[in-house]
Amino acid sequence: MPSRIANARSAEVRTFSETVDPFVGTADTSRDSLRSIEAAMKVLAAHTELFPAEHFQRPGSEPGALFELWVNEAGTAALYYNVIWDDIDSPAHRHGTWAAIAGLESVEPNQTYRLDPETDAPIPAERIEVTPGIAVSMLPTDVHSIHVHGPFPVRTLHFYGRSLATAGLRELYDPDLKKWETYPAQVTVLQPSVV
Ligand SMILES: [Fe+2]
């Protein structure tokens, strides 16, 4: 039997899905659409009482975990609760779709990049500290990396233009080989444990 908090969370996620509906599932999600999505995510993330740590427990020794909150029927919009319990330094990467991140607890430092017009290598641009009240978003062509070093746990909401539980492609930059590599982006997605 779902708890009162889980029910309240489902209702708030439903409101979020209705708010972002005009902006998702289209082939041409724009920077303006992403700004509207960011605003909706900040409203949802402000409801910290709906995301208690007991519902999103660490499954093992992995440094992070992704919990599914909502995926639309077409699989063209997918909202996750992301928790990080240990240091993570990701390579510069693209998601193969648009993405937006909003802070819930602690800080997820995001590094954005521009591309060298001659070599296509990522060049650091802006560093954005994603904390409560802050959101960032990326078009499919935008590049970022995350550099998380506590305080732990770090909790964020992640929203993508496709489900991460199904195979898709991500691109990451290998600084040693000095080239972009494509790899399957299918990740393990957990369900919140209702208490
Ligand atoms: Fe990313």
Automatic annotation (TrEMBL):
Superkingdom of the source species: Bacteria
SUPFAM superfamilies in alphabetical order: RmlC-like cupins (SSF51182)
InterPro entries: RmlC-like_jellyroll, RmlC_Cupin_sf
Protein name: Cysteine dioxygenase type I
Lineage of the organism: Bacteria, Pseudomonadati, Pseudomonadota, Alphaproteobacteria, Rhodobacterales
